[in-house]
Amino acid sequence: MRYVTVEEMRALEANSDYFGVTYGMLMENAGRKAAESIIALYKKCRVLVVCGTGNNGGDGAVVARLLVNAGYNVMVILLGRVGQVKPGPALVNLEIARGMDIPVIEAATPGQIPEEAFAECDLIVDAILGTGFHGIPREPARTAIRLINESKAHKVSLDLPSGLDANTGECVECVCPDLVIAFHAPKKGLERYRVEVVDIGIPEKALTHTGPGDLIGLKTRSDFVEKGGGGRLLVIGGGPYTGAPTFTALAAYRSGAEIVTVAAPRRAASIIASFSPDLIVRPLSHEDFIVREDIPTLKKLIERHHAVAVGMGLGREPETLAAVKEILPLCERVVIDADALQPDMPLHGIITPNVHEFERLSGEHLGPNDDAAEKVKAFSAKNGLVTLWKGSPAVVSDGNVAKVNSTGNAGMAVGGAGDVLAGIVGAFYCRNPAYKSACAAAFISGAAGDMAFEDKGYGMMASDMLNMIPYAVKKYWPRKEK
Ligand SMILES: NC(=O)C1=CN([C@@H]2O[C@H](COP(=O)(O)OP(=O)(O)OC[C@H]3O[C@@H](n4cnc5c(N)ncnc54)[C@H](O)[C@@H]3O)[C@@H](O)[C@H]2O)[C@H](O)CC1
Ligand SMILES: [K+]
Protein backbone atom coordinates (compact mmCIF):
# COMPACT_ATOMS: atom_id res chain seq x y z
CA MET A 1 0.00 0.00 0.00
CA ARG A 2 1.77 3.24 -1.19
CA TYR A 3 1.16 5.59 1.72
CA VAL A 4 1.48 9.38 1.70
CA THR A 5 3.52 11.05 4.44
CA VAL A 6 2.09 13.76 6.65
CA GLU A 7 4.44 16.31 5.03
CA GLU A 8 3.42 15.23 1.53
CA MET A 9 -0.24 15.53 2.51
CA ARG A 10 0.26 19.02 3.94
CA ALA A 11 2.11 20.05 0.78
CA LEU A 12 -0.68 18.71 -1.44
CA GLU A 13 -3.35 20.47 0.61
CA ALA A 14 -1.41 23.75 0.59
CA ASN A 15 -0.86 23.56 -3.18
CA SER A 16 -4.49 22.60 -3.70
CA ASP A 17 -5.55 25.67 -1.72
CA TYR A 18 -3.08 27.81 -3.72
CA PHE A 19 -4.54 26.57 -7.03
CA GLY A 20 -8.08 27.31 -5.86
CA VAL A 21 -9.46 24.08 -4.36
CA THR A 22 -9.42 25.54 -0.87
CA TYR A 23 -8.97 23.87 2.51
CA GLY A 24 -12.67 24.39 3.08
CA MET A 25 -13.59 22.71 -0.19
CA LEU A 26 -11.28 19.78 0.61
CA MET A 27 -12.94 19.38 4.00
CA GLU A 28 -16.41 19.46 2.44
CA ASN A 29 -15.33 16.90 -0.16
CA ALA A 30 -13.76 14.67 2.50
CA GLY A 31 -16.86 14.82 4.68
CA ARG A 32 -19.17 14.21 1.74
CA LYS A 33 -17.22 11.17 0.51
CA ALA A 34 -17.10 9.75 4.04
CA ALA A 35 -20.84 10.28 4.54
CA GLU A 36 -21.58 8.62 1.18
CA SER A 37 -19.52 5.57 2.21
CA ILE A 38 -21.30 5.38 5.57
CA ILE A 39 -24.76 5.72 3.96
CA ALA A 40 -23.84 2.95 1.51
CA LEU A 41 -22.76 0.65 4.37
CA TYR A 42 -25.13 1.44 7.23
CA LYS A 43 -28.89 1.94 7.05
CA LYS A 44 -30.40 4.85 8.94
CA CYS A 45 -29.40 4.52 12.58
CA ARG A 46 -28.19 6.35 15.71
CA VAL A 47 -24.77 7.88 14.98
CA LEU A 48 -22.31 9.34 17.48
CA VAL A 49 -19.65 11.57 15.89
CA VAL A 50 -16.67 12.19 18.20
CA CYS A 51 -14.74 15.27 17.04
CA GLY A 52 -11.31 16.58 17.96
CA THR A 53 -10.47 20.27 17.75
CA GLY A 54 -8.46 20.06 14.51
CA ASN A 55 -9.39 19.56 10.87
CA ASN A 56 -10.13 15.87 11.47
CA GLY A 57 -12.85 17.10 13.81
CA GLY A 58 -13.94 19.47 11.06
CA ASP A 59 -14.37 16.50 8.75
CA GLY A 60 -16.52 14.93 11.46
CA ALA A 61 -18.76 17.98 11.61
CA VAL A 62 -19.34 17.77 7.83
CA VAL A 63 -20.18 14.06 8.15
CA ALA A 64 -22.62 14.84 10.99
CA ARG A 65 -24.42 17.47 8.89
CA LEU A 66 -24.69 15.21 5.81
CA LEU A 67 -25.92 12.20 7.81
CA VAL A 68 -28.65 14.37 9.37
CA ASN A 69 -29.62 15.48 5.85
CA ALA A 70 -29.89 11.78 4.95
CA GLY A 71 -32.23 11.11 7.88
CA TYR A 72 -29.77 9.63 10.43
CA ASN A 73 -30.11 10.39 14.12
CA VAL A 74 -26.85 12.19 14.91
CA MET A 75 -25.16 13.47 18.05
CA VAL A 76 -21.72 15.11 18.24
CA ILE A 77 -19.26 15.09 21.12
CA LEU A 78 -16.57 17.76 20.77
CA LEU A 79 -13.44 16.94 22.82
CA GLY A 80 -12.88 20.50 23.88
CA ARG A 81 -14.59 23.86 23.76
CA VAL A 82 -15.77 25.35 20.47
CA GLY A 83 -13.44 28.24 21.33
CA GLN A 84 -10.49 25.80 21.15
CA VAL A 85 -11.37 24.61 17.65
CA LYS A 86 -8.87 25.45 14.93
CA PRO A 87 -10.04 28.65 13.20
CA GLY A 88 -10.92 28.03 9.55
CA PRO A 89 -12.92 25.23 7.94
CA ALA A 90 -13.10 23.11 11.12
CA LEU A 91 -14.64 25.90 13.19
CA VAL A 92 -16.97 26.92 10.34
CA ASN A 93 -18.32 23.38 10.05
CA LEU A 94 -18.77 22.92 13.76
CA GLU A 95 -20.70 26.20 13.95
CA ILE A 96 -22.86 25.08 10.97
CA ALA A 97 -23.60 21.80 12.77
CA ARG A 98 -24.57 23.66 15.93
CA GLY A 99 -26.65 26.06 13.86
CA MET A 100 -28.58 23.08 12.44
CA ASP A 101 -29.61 22.12 15.99
CA ILE A 102 -27.41 19.03 15.87
CA PRO A 103 -26.62 18.30 19.53
CA VAL A 104 -22.93 19.16 20.05
CA ILE A 105 -21.77 18.22 23.56
CA GLU A 106 -18.58 20.01 24.58
CA ALA A 107 -16.35 17.76 26.68
CA ALA A 108 -13.06 19.44 27.62
CA THR A 109 -12.25 16.88 30.33
CA PRO A 110 -12.75 13.09 30.60
CA GLY A 111 -15.43 13.66 33.24
CA GLN A 112 -17.48 15.78 30.85
CA ILE A 113 -17.71 12.99 28.25
CA PRO A 114 -21.30 11.55 28.31
CA GLU A 115 -20.36 7.85 28.57
CA GLU A 116 -23.93 6.69 28.02
CA ALA A 117 -23.80 8.10 24.46
CA PHE A 118 -21.34 5.33 23.51
CA ALA A 119 -23.84 2.65 24.57
CA GLU A 120 -26.88 4.32 23.01
CA CYS A 121 -25.64 4.46 19.44
CA ASP A 122 -25.32 2.01 16.55
CA LEU A 123 -22.40 3.66 14.77
CA ILE A 124 -19.49 5.78 16.01
CA VAL A 125 -17.59 8.10 13.64
CA ASP A 126 -14.05 8.66 14.93
CA ALA A 127 -13.10 12.22 13.98
CA ILE A 128 -10.82 12.90 16.96
CA LEU A 129 -7.32 12.88 15.51
CA GLY A 130 -5.91 12.70 12.02
CA THR A 131 -2.52 13.55 10.53
CA GLY A 132 -2.01 16.32 13.08
CA PHE A 133 -1.58 13.77 15.87
CA HIS A 134 1.77 12.75 17.30
CA GLY A 135 2.97 11.05 20.44
CA ILE A 136 0.58 9.59 23.01
CA PRO A 137 -3.09 10.60 23.12
CA ARG A 138 -3.67 13.26 25.75
CA GLU A 139 -6.96 13.64 27.64
CA PRO A 140 -9.78 13.87 26.87
CA ALA A 141 -8.93 12.11 23.58
CA ARG A 142 -7.47 9.20 25.49
CA THR A 143 -10.68 8.46 27.40
CA ALA A 144 -12.76 8.92 24.25
CA ILE A 145 -10.60 6.37 22.40
CA ARG A 146 -11.12 3.88 25.23
CA LEU A 147 -14.90 4.47 25.31
CA ILE A 148 -15.10 4.01 21.54
CA ASN A 149 -13.22 0.71 21.73
CA GLU A 150 -15.39 -0.53 24.63
CA SER A 151 -18.58 0.32 22.75
CA LYS A 152 -20.51 -2.39 20.90
CA ALA A 153 -21.31 0.05 18.09
CA HIS A 154 -19.67 -0.16 14.69
CA LYS A 155 -16.74 2.20 14.31
CA VAL A 156 -15.62 4.20 11.29
CA SER A 157 -12.43 6.28 11.54
CA LEU A 158 -11.92 9.36 9.36
CA ASP A 159 -8.55 9.49 7.55
CA LEU A 160 -6.88 7.26 10.13
CA PRO A 161 -7.70 5.65 13.48
CA SER A 162 -7.31 8.31 16.18
CA GLY A 163 -4.13 7.61 18.10
CA LEU A 164 -2.24 6.28 15.07
CA ASP A 165 0.81 8.46 14.43
CA ALA A 166 0.83 8.91 10.63
CA ASN A 167 4.49 9.96 10.78
CA THR A 168 5.60 6.61 12.14
CA GLY A 169 2.66 4.27 11.53
CA GLU A 170 2.77 3.36 15.22
CA CYS A 171 -0.01 3.52 17.77
CA VAL A 172 0.12 3.10 21.52
CA GLU A 173 -3.57 3.58 22.19
CA CYS A 174 -5.74 3.99 19.16
CA VAL A 175 -9.25 3.40 17.96
CA CYS A 176 -9.84 -0.10 16.57
CA PRO A 177 -12.25 0.70 13.72
CA ASP A 178 -14.26 -1.60 11.50
CA LEU A 179 -13.38 0.72 8.61
CA VAL A 180 -10.98 3.57 7.91
CA ILE A 181 -12.05 6.09 5.28
CA ALA A 182 -8.70 7.54 4.15
CA PHE A 183 -8.64 10.89 2.35
CA HIS A 184 -6.75 11.11 -0.96
CA ALA A 185 -4.29 8.34 -0.10
CA PRO A 186 -3.55 5.86 2.71
CA LYS A 187 -1.32 7.05 5.57
CA LYS A 188 1.51 5.03 7.13
CA GLY A 189 0.31 2.24 9.42
CA LEU A 190 -3.05 1.56 7.76
CA GLU A 191 -1.95 -1.84 6.40
CA ARG A 192 -3.60 -3.64 9.33
CA TYR A 193 -7.03 -2.07 8.81
CA ARG A 194 -9.89 -2.31 6.34
CA VAL A 195 -9.38 0.91 4.37
CA GLU A 196 -11.44 2.72 1.79
CA VAL A 197 -9.53 5.52 0.06
CA VAL A 198 -11.71 8.38 -1.18
CA ASP A 199 -10.80 11.20 -3.54
CA ILE A 200 -11.22 14.61 -1.91
CA GLY A 201 -10.76 16.64 -5.09
CA ILE A 202 -7.11 17.65 -4.82
CA PRO A 203 -6.41 19.00 -8.32
CA GLU A 204 -3.79 17.28 -10.50
CA LYS A 205 -1.95 20.62 -10.64
CA ALA A 206 -1.21 20.32 -6.91
CA LEU A 207 0.89 17.29 -7.79
CA THR A 208 2.42 18.45 -11.06
CA HIS A 209 3.24 22.08 -10.23
CA THR A 210 5.21 23.88 -7.54
CA GLY A 211 3.36 25.90 -4.94
CA PRO A 212 3.63 27.05 -1.31
CA GLY A 213 3.28 23.41 -0.29
CA ASP A 214 6.80 22.81 -1.62
CA LEU A 215 8.08 25.08 1.14
CA ILE A 216 6.43 23.05 3.92
CA GLY A 217 9.05 21.21 5.94
CA LEU A 218 11.94 23.17 4.40
CA LYS A 219 14.56 23.62 7.10
CA THR A 220 15.76 27.16 7.63
CA ARG A 221 18.37 28.92 9.74
CA SER A 222 16.00 29.04 12.73
CA ASP A 223 15.94 25.23 12.77
CA PHE A 224 19.66 25.13 13.41
CA VAL A 225 20.29 27.94 15.86
CA GLU A 226 21.88 25.66 18.40
CA LYS A 227 23.10 23.10 15.90
CA GLY A 228 26.08 24.93 14.41
CA GLY A 229 23.87 27.57 12.83
CA GLY A 230 22.32 27.91 9.44
CA GLY A 231 23.64 26.99 6.05
CA ARG A 232 27.15 27.81 4.91
CA LEU A 233 27.38 28.12 1.13
CA LEU A 234 30.58 28.31 -0.92
CA VAL A 235 30.30 30.03 -4.31
CA ILE A 236 33.09 29.07 -6.74
CA GLY A 237 32.90 31.40 -9.67
CA GLY A 238 34.03 34.63 -11.23
CA GLY A 239 36.83 35.22 -13.66
CA PRO A 240 35.82 37.13 -16.77
CA TYR A 241 32.59 38.04 -15.00
CA THR A 242 32.09 39.32 -11.47
CA GLY A 243 28.35 40.11 -11.34
CA ALA A 244 27.25 36.48 -11.67
CA PRO A 245 28.88 35.06 -8.52
CA THR A 246 27.87 38.20 -6.66
CA PHE A 247 24.21 37.69 -7.54
CA THR A 248 24.45 34.05 -6.46
CA ALA A 249 26.05 34.94 -3.15
CA LEU A 250 23.66 37.78 -2.30
CA ALA A 251 20.64 35.67 -3.32
CA ALA A 252 21.83 32.95 -0.94
CA TYR A 253 21.94 35.45 1.90
CA ARG A 254 18.50 36.75 0.98
CA SER A 255 17.26 33.13 1.09
CA GLY A 256 18.48 32.59 4.63
CA ALA A 257 22.02 31.25 4.30
CA GLU A 258 24.11 32.13 7.34
CA ILE A 259 27.57 32.29 5.76
CA VAL A 260 28.30 32.77 2.05
CA THR A 261 31.91 32.66 0.85
CA VAL A 262 32.91 33.54 -2.71
CA ALA A 263 36.12 31.90 -4.02
CA ALA A 264 37.24 33.74 -7.17
CA PRO A 265 40.42 34.60 -9.12
CA ARG A 266 42.31 37.53 -7.61
CA ARG A 267 41.16 40.40 -9.81
CA ALA A 268 37.53 39.26 -9.77
CA ALA A 269 37.74 38.71 -6.02
CA SER A 270 38.70 42.30 -5.31
CA ILE A 271 35.89 43.58 -7.53
CA ILE A 272 33.30 41.23 -5.93
CA ALA A 273 34.43 42.25 -2.44
CA SER A 274 33.83 45.87 -3.40
CA PHE A 275 30.18 45.15 -4.22
CA SER A 276 29.09 44.34 -0.70
CA PRO A 277 30.56 44.07 2.80
CA ASP A 278 28.19 41.12 3.33
CA LEU A 279 30.34 38.95 1.11
CA ILE A 280 33.25 36.92 2.43
CA VAL A 281 35.56 36.78 -0.59
CA ARG A 282 38.50 34.39 -0.88
CA PRO A 283 40.95 35.43 -3.63
CA LEU A 284 42.56 32.48 -5.43
CA SER A 285 46.03 32.24 -6.91
CA HIS A 286 45.72 33.44 -10.50
CA GLU A 287 44.88 36.99 -11.53
CA ASP A 288 42.21 36.16 -14.10
CA PHE A 289 40.84 32.65 -13.84
CA ILE A 290 40.72 29.54 -11.63
CA VAL A 291 43.66 27.18 -12.12
CA ARG A 292 44.68 23.73 -10.87
CA GLU A 293 46.94 25.29 -8.20
CA ASP A 294 43.72 26.46 -6.54
CA ILE A 295 42.47 22.93 -5.89
CA PRO A 296 44.00 22.47 -2.40
CA THR A 297 42.55 25.83 -1.30
CA LEU A 298 39.18 25.00 -2.80
CA LYS A 299 39.24 21.55 -1.15
CA LYS A 300 39.69 23.14 2.28
CA LEU A 301 36.90 25.66 1.59
CA ILE A 302 34.55 22.92 0.37
CA GLU A 303 35.06 21.02 3.63
CA ARG A 304 34.06 24.09 5.63
CA HIS A 305 30.71 24.66 3.90
CA HIS A 306 27.44 22.67 3.72
CA ALA A 307 26.98 23.19 0.00
CA VAL A 308 28.79 24.58 -3.05
CA ALA A 309 27.47 26.56 -6.02
CA VAL A 310 29.90 26.45 -8.91
CA GLY A 311 30.07 27.85 -12.43
CA MET A 312 28.65 31.34 -12.37
CA GLY A 313 30.88 33.81 -14.24
CA LEU A 314 33.63 31.19 -14.36
CA GLY A 315 34.65 31.51 -17.99
CA ARG A 316 35.70 28.48 -20.04
CA GLU A 317 39.51 28.48 -19.86
CA PRO A 318 40.49 24.82 -20.38
CA GLU A 319 42.57 24.94 -17.20
CA THR A 320 39.59 26.31 -15.26
CA LEU A 321 37.28 23.58 -16.52
CA ALA A 322 39.94 20.97 -15.74
CA ALA A 323 40.14 22.27 -12.17
CA VAL A 324 36.34 22.24 -11.81
CA LYS A 325 36.32 18.68 -13.11
CA GLU A 326 38.62 17.71 -10.24
CA ILE A 327 36.77 19.50 -7.47
CA LEU A 328 33.20 18.45 -8.36
CA PRO A 329 33.62 14.94 -6.87
CA LEU A 330 34.83 16.57 -3.64
CA CYS A 331 31.52 18.37 -3.20
CA GLU A 332 28.86 16.49 -1.24
CA ARG A 333 26.09 18.98 -2.04
CA VAL A 334 26.69 20.95 -5.21
CA VAL A 335 24.69 23.24 -7.48
CA ILE A 336 26.31 23.21 -10.92
CA ASP A 337 25.46 26.14 -13.15
CA ALA A 338 26.46 28.03 -16.30
CA ASP A 339 30.03 27.47 -17.54
CA ALA A 340 30.54 24.43 -15.32
CA LEU A 341 27.75 22.64 -17.22
CA GLN A 342 29.89 20.86 -19.77
CA PRO A 343 29.13 17.36 -21.17
CA ASP A 344 32.34 15.81 -19.81
CA MET A 345 31.90 17.14 -16.29
CA PRO A 346 31.17 14.65 -13.43
CA LEU A 347 27.72 16.16 -12.89
CA HIS A 348 25.82 15.32 -9.71
CA GLY A 349 23.73 17.04 -7.00
CA ILE A 350 21.60 19.75 -8.61
CA ILE A 351 22.21 21.22 -12.06
CA THR A 352 20.53 24.43 -13.19
CA PRO A 353 20.83 24.52 -16.99
CA ASN A 354 19.14 27.09 -19.19
CA VAL A 355 17.62 25.83 -22.44
CA HIS A 356 20.93 26.07 -24.36
CA GLU A 357 23.01 24.48 -21.60
CA PHE A 358 20.50 21.61 -21.35
CA GLU A 359 20.76 21.10 -25.11
CA ARG A 360 24.57 21.07 -24.78
CA LEU A 361 24.37 18.42 -22.06
CA SER A 362 21.57 16.25 -23.38
CA GLY A 363 21.66 16.84 -27.10
CA GLU A 364 17.92 17.50 -26.76
CA HIS A 365 16.39 20.69 -28.09
CA LEU A 366 13.15 21.15 -26.15
CA GLY A 367 10.66 22.97 -28.36
CA PRO A 368 7.25 24.38 -27.29
CA ASN A 369 5.55 21.11 -28.26
CA ASP A 370 7.96 18.89 -26.33
CA ASP A 371 6.98 17.44 -23.00
CA ALA A 372 9.77 19.18 -21.09
CA ALA A 373 8.83 17.43 -17.81
CA GLU A 374 9.32 14.00 -19.36
CA LYS A 375 12.59 14.95 -21.11
CA VAL A 376 14.04 16.56 -17.99
CA LYS A 377 12.91 13.58 -15.87
CA ALA A 378 14.58 11.14 -18.27
CA PHE A 379 17.82 13.13 -18.27
CA SER A 380 17.80 13.35 -14.46
CA ALA A 381 17.15 9.60 -14.13
CA LYS A 382 19.94 8.75 -16.59
CA ASN A 383 22.44 10.96 -14.78
CA GLY A 384 21.28 10.37 -11.21
CA LEU A 385 20.84 14.00 -10.31
CA VAL A 386 18.27 16.74 -9.86
CA THR A 387 17.73 19.04 -12.81
CA LEU A 388 16.22 22.49 -12.52
CA TRP A 389 15.67 23.25 -16.20
CA LYS A 390 15.30 27.02 -16.66
CA GLY A 391 12.76 26.91 -19.44
CA SER A 392 9.60 28.96 -19.29
CA PRO A 393 8.08 27.60 -17.26
CA ALA A 394 10.95 25.96 -15.41
CA VAL A 395 10.82 22.23 -14.74
CA VAL A 396 12.35 20.37 -11.78
CA SER A 397 12.94 16.62 -11.69
CA ASP A 398 14.85 14.07 -9.65
CA GLY A 399 14.38 11.35 -12.25
CA ASN A 400 11.32 9.86 -10.52
CA VAL A 401 8.92 12.79 -10.40
CA ALA A 402 8.85 16.17 -12.08
CA LYS A 403 7.22 19.50 -11.25
CA VAL A 404 6.49 22.46 -13.47
CA ASN A 405 7.18 25.79 -11.79
CA SER A 406 4.05 27.89 -11.31
CA THR A 407 5.71 31.28 -10.79
CA GLY A 408 7.89 33.58 -12.92
CA ASN A 409 7.49 35.78 -15.95
CA ALA A 410 9.16 36.90 -19.18
CA GLY A 411 10.70 39.88 -17.38
CA MET A 412 13.05 37.42 -15.71
CA ALA A 413 14.85 36.80 -19.00
CA VAL A 414 17.39 39.34 -17.84
CA GLY A 415 21.09 39.00 -17.11
CA GLY A 416 21.74 37.61 -13.66
CA ALA A 417 18.32 36.07 -13.00
CA GLY A 418 19.80 32.58 -13.37
CA ASP A 419 22.58 33.44 -10.94
CA VAL A 420 20.00 34.62 -8.41
CA LEU A 421 18.15 31.32 -8.81
CA ALA A 422 21.37 29.35 -8.25
CA GLY A 423 21.92 31.25 -5.00
CA ILE A 424 18.44 30.42 -3.73
CA VAL A 425 18.94 26.75 -4.64
CA GLY A 426 22.32 26.72 -2.89
CA ALA A 427 20.96 28.32 0.28
CA PHE A 428 18.14 25.77 0.58
CA TYR A 429 20.38 22.83 -0.39
CA CYS A 430 22.68 23.54 2.56
CA ARG A 431 20.13 21.95 4.84
CA ASN A 432 17.49 20.25 2.71
CA PRO A 433 17.16 17.38 0.25
CA ALA A 434 18.11 18.20 -3.34
CA TYR A 435 14.72 17.84 -5.03
CA LYS A 436 12.88 19.73 -2.29
CA SER A 437 15.50 22.52 -2.43
CA ALA A 438 15.19 22.84 -6.20
CA CYS A 439 11.37 22.89 -6.21
CA ALA A 440 11.23 25.44 -3.40
CA ALA A 441 13.92 27.59 -5.03
CA ALA A 442 12.20 27.57 -8.41
CA PHE A 443 8.97 28.67 -6.73
CA ILE A 444 10.57 31.41 -4.61
CA SER A 445 12.75 32.69 -7.46
CA GLY A 446 9.73 33.02 -9.74
CA ALA A 447 7.68 34.61 -6.98
CA ALA A 448 10.43 37.18 -6.36
CA GLY A 449 10.56 37.75 -10.11
CA ASP A 450 6.80 38.26 -10.20
CA MET A 451 7.04 40.84 -7.42
CA ALA A 452 9.89 42.63 -9.25
CA PHE A 453 7.86 42.58 -12.48
CA GLU A 454 4.81 43.91 -10.66
CA ASP A 455 6.97 46.77 -9.45
CA LYS A 456 9.10 47.53 -12.51
CA GLY A 457 7.71 45.63 -15.49
CA TYR A 458 10.29 44.95 -18.18
CA GLY A 459 12.51 47.48 -16.48
CA MET A 460 13.22 44.87 -13.78
CA MET A 461 16.75 43.68 -13.22
CA ALA A 462 18.19 40.70 -11.38
CA SER A 463 19.05 42.99 -8.47
CA ASP A 464 15.34 43.80 -8.14
CA MET A 465 14.68 40.06 -7.77
CA LEU A 466 17.32 39.91 -5.01
CA ASN A 467 15.48 42.49 -2.96
CA MET A 468 12.15 40.71 -3.38
CA ILE A 469 13.33 37.26 -2.18
CA PRO A 470 12.60 37.88 1.53
CA TYR A 471 9.15 39.19 0.68
CA ALA A 472 8.39 36.15 -1.47
CA VAL A 473 9.55 33.89 1.36
CA LYS A 474 7.39 35.76 3.86
CA LYS A 475 4.35 35.67 1.59
CA TYR A 476 4.41 31.97 0.76
CA TRP A 477 6.17 30.15 3.56
CA PRO A 478 3.27 28.79 5.59
CA ARG A 479 4.96 29.12 8.99
CA LYS A 480 1.80 27.89 10.62
CA GLU A 481 -0.64 25.32 9.35
CA LYS A 482 -3.96 26.69 8.14
N1 LIG B 1 -5.66 20.38 5.95
C1 LIG B 1 -6.77 20.27 5.18
O1 LIG B 1 -7.10 21.11 4.39
C2 LIG B 1 -7.60 19.09 5.28
C3 LIG B 1 -7.36 18.18 6.29
N2 LIG B 1 -8.17 17.13 6.42
C4 LIG B 1 -8.30 16.52 7.72
O2 LIG B 1 -7.52 17.19 8.67
C5 LIG B 1 -6.67 16.28 9.35
C6 LIG B 1 -5.42 16.99 9.79
O3 LIG B 1 -5.91 18.09 10.53
P1 LIG B 1 -5.00 18.84 11.59
O4 LIG B 1 -5.77 20.01 12.05
O5 LIG B 1 -3.65 19.07 11.02
O6 LIG B 1 -4.78 17.83 12.79
P2 LIG B 1 -5.76 16.79 13.45
O7 LIG B 1 -7.17 17.21 13.32
O8 LIG B 1 -5.38 15.49 12.95
O9 LIG B 1 -5.34 16.89 14.99
C7 LIG B 1 -4.99 18.12 15.47
C8 LIG B 1 -5.58 18.23 16.84
O10 LIG B 1 -5.13 17.13 17.61
C9 LIG B 1 -4.47 17.62 18.76
N3 LIG B 1 -3.40 16.70 19.11
C10 LIG B 1 -2.20 16.54 18.53
N4 LIG B 1 -1.49 15.61 19.19
C11 LIG B 1 -2.27 15.16 20.22
C12 LIG B 1 -2.10 14.22 21.26
N5 LIG B 1 -0.94 13.53 21.40
N6 LIG B 1 -3.12 14.02 22.14
C13 LIG B 1 -4.26 14.74 22.02
N7 LIG B 1 -4.50 15.67 21.05
C14 LIG B 1 -3.50 15.86 20.17
C15 LIG B 1 -3.99 18.99 18.36
O11 LIG B 1 -3.88 19.81 19.50
C16 LIG B 1 -5.10 19.47 17.47
O12 LIG B 1 -6.14 20.02 18.21
C17 LIG B 1 -6.47 15.17 8.38
O13 LIG B 1 -6.15 13.96 9.02
C18 LIG B 1 -7.83 15.09 7.69
O14 LIG B 1 -8.71 14.34 8.48
C19 LIG B 1 -9.30 17.03 5.49
O15 LIG B 1 -9.64 15.73 5.32
C20 LIG B 1 -8.97 17.53 4.13
C21 LIG B 1 -8.61 18.93 4.24
K1 LIG C 1 -9.65 9.91 13.03
Automatic annotation (TrEMBL):
InterPro entries in the record: Carbohydrate_kinase_pred_CS (IPR017953), CARKD (IPR000631), Nnr (IPR030677), Rhodanese-like_dom (IPR001763), Ribokinase-like (IPR029056), YjeF_N_dom (IPR004443), YjeF_N_dom_sf (IPR036652)
EC numbers for this chain: 4.2.1.136, 5.1.99.6
UniProt binding sites for (6S)-NADPHX: 55-59, 130-136, 159, 244, 313, 419
Cofactors required: Mg(2+); K(+)
Catalytic activity: (6S)-NADPHX + ADP = AMP + phosphate + NADPH + H(+); (6R)-NADHX = (6S)-NADHX; (6S)-NADHX + ADP = AMP + phosphate + NADH + H(+); (6R)-NADPHX = (6S)-NADPHX
Known role: Catalyzes the dehydration of the S-form of NAD(P)HX at the expense of ADP, which is converted to AMP. Together with NAD(P)HX epimerase, which catalyzes the epimerization of the S- and R-forms, the enzyme allows the repair of both epimers of NAD(P)HX, a damaged form of NAD(P)H that is a result of enzymatic or heat-dependent hydration. Catalyzes the epimerization of the S- and R-forms of NAD(P)HX, a damaged form of NAD(P)H that is a result of enzymatic or heat-dependent hydration. This is a prerequisite for the S-specific NAD(P)H-hydrate dehydratase to allow the repair of both epimers of NAD(P)HX.
Name of the protein in question: Bifunctional NAD(P)H-hydrate repair enzyme
Record organism: Methanocella conradii (strain DSM 24694 / JCM 17849 / CGMCC 1.5162 / HZ254)
